Amino acid sequence: xxxxxxxxxxxxxxxxxxxxxxxxxxxxxxxxxxxxxxxxxxxxxxxxxxxxxxxxxxxxxxxxxxxxxxxxxxxxxxxxxxxxxxxxxxxxxxxxxxxxxxxxxxxxxxxxxxxxxxxx
Length: 120
Description:
By secondary structure, the chain is mainly beta. The protein is built from no helices and 11 strands. The protein has strands spanning 3-7, 10-12, 18-25, 33-39, 46-52, 57-59, 67-71, 78-82, 91-100, 106-110, 114-118. Strands 2, 4, 5, 6, 9, 10 and 11 form a 7-stranded mixed sheet that branches. The protein has a 4-stranded antiparallel sheet with strand order 1-3-8-7, with no helix packed on it. A hairpin with a 6-residue loop joins strand 7 (67-71) and strand 8 (78-82). 29% of the residues are buried. The mean pLDDT is 94.
């Protein structure tokens, strides 16, 4: 059983930068997509950025041109470089790995999350 562990969160002023890291502990099965999601209090969890095994990326409109998702290997470590952070970026950020199962749907691996707080 694999575990995803996020790190790199913290308190940063508006306009600042942070880099989040997702580390895999144990053996992660082949997955199709990895990404970052975030959830603020009272809000639904939302996709921030994803990257496929092929390297194709996708970003939420609110973070385009400010965030960059990348990985060192085929699946891990996974990074999220965040620039020009805004207060609305404040949330718990979760690492995700997703395996498509065809008719069976999909299976997700999740980390415990790391807190990002953007405030003066």
